[in-house]
Amino acid sequence: MSAMTDDAAGFEPDAGLVPTEAKIARREMLRQLLRSKTFIVGNIVILFWIFWALTGSAFTPHDPLEQTADILKAPSSTYWFGTDQFGRDIFSRVLAGAQSTMRVAPAATVIAITFGTILGLIMGFIGGFVDDAMSRLVDAILALPLIVIAVVVLTALGSSNITLILVIGLIFTSPIARTVRATVLGERQLDYVQAAQLRGERGPYIMFVEILPNIMGPIIVEATVRLGYAIFAIAGLTFLGFGVQPPSPDWSLQISENYTLLSAGSYWWTVLFACLAISTLVIAVNLVADGLQQVVDE
Amino acid sequence: MLVFGASSLLPGDVGRNVLGGFASQRDVDIFNKAAGTDRPLVTQYLDWVTHFVQGDLGTSLQYKVSVSSLLGPAFTNSLKLAAVAFVILVPLSILGGAIAGLRRNSLTDRVITITGVSFTAIPEFVTAIAFILLFGLWLDWLPVSATAPEGANIATQIQYLLLPSFALVAVEFGYIARITRSSIVENVDADYTRTAYLKGLTKRDVVGKHVLRNSLLPTIAVVATQVGYLIGGLLVIEKIFNYNGIGLRIYTAAQNKDYPTLQSGVMLVGIVYLLATLTADILYSVFNPRIRFGGDE
Questions:
Q1: pTM, two decimal places
Q2: Which chain A residues contact residue B12 at CB under 8 A?
């Protein structure tokens, strides 16, 4: 987000009167955000998981990959969340499991936002044939359930983290391009864009220097919303076996490794805590997205 | 702006199928030369499409039986599951949204909205497992398997499908409820509602005859769109419950590189998805006359 504000800041000097107004508006937005309890709670939860994603297994009570003789032990004072079928400490695995999700989902979102914004700007600003052709392409990608396309493509290309990031990133480009395009269409009518055109500025300059800073709000909201969807989609695909592979402590992987034990005997702790971890993260991301949306909409 | 429906989606979908066909054919070459895969891709693709349209889906590479005999029962099973989920989902989410909308900003509203948003955000396999734990193992109310014993009657079959349906319902509930809620809110604030009150109608009449009727119509169109998402959810849910539906077939075919089955399965899902979107677009313009003459931007 800081890079985005930097962009806007770099834009200020030649905009004359705009800077002070923009700055006041931004400060007002920030104040509103900080007043929203859900936004703050969401951020705290996300920061918690970012911490564990960054530190990995450095601070976990046990080594998340270490196998012991204590197999499928119920939660106790030694193993807070119990152990799995290989005697690994589930508490440590849940904490360390943040890492893969926090790497893959944001990476996919960054790819999607970058390409989606560029495409959307081009579609909305240039219009005409380019817009028509690209819109049909976007429609085509959105014409199938995401997970079905992803499964087909990952089968053809083979599954790894990198392909997973690329596939989700590229599929998500479509809806983002669509949103950005709609926003650009609204901006294009405004005086400042016409003024720039009359000044004889070139297309790319108008798109990226004039329009982009002004539609940053909706783009940030879209990015947060997509991050939530990306976690959702990647979790599903990892669960199906198309993402990171064992013995990674990834949450979805833990669930897919252990859920069959549920019917064998109720080893609920092997899946429940991973479920809770993934739920807290997606809900937190959605709370943040919601808070941002409310402020940007006003 | 919403005219993209029929005309644009149809050619777009063909493009998607070409892509799907190409992507997998590349690997088929290595796997199976005997199947005539050394012919030009376009010929193969046309060949496959022609056969598909005629109802001949080819032979499964994995099971050595015809794909249609594999996918046929699976498709029926999926329809059953989707139907049960839908029957629970639609009244529940519309009711939830309507209550939330009519009691805007109350505690009830906030509880419904937050529950909805949370369930929508949580991946379906996570909710499914939570439900298995809660209703299947701890409370022991429902069977944890989705497949009813051979020859079971309809009531038993539905009972077995309840748990997987709940998970699908959970994911979709928030979305439909939110649309209903905002539609209701919009109509409660509308001028005609005030006129109705000023005319001296009771609250019950205003809500029942004006607000609900006007806000539910567009919601129905949105519900049709959700059929598509429901199908996406089937893939994961059927895997969890090991339920022999189209989602599980696609998954197994993908795992075993069984391309004929994979292609036909994806194609089937695509067709259903397309029909749902089309229905949604048509319903939307039927219920909302303003769209029809809207044109572009």
A1: 0.78
A2: 136-137, 139-140, 143
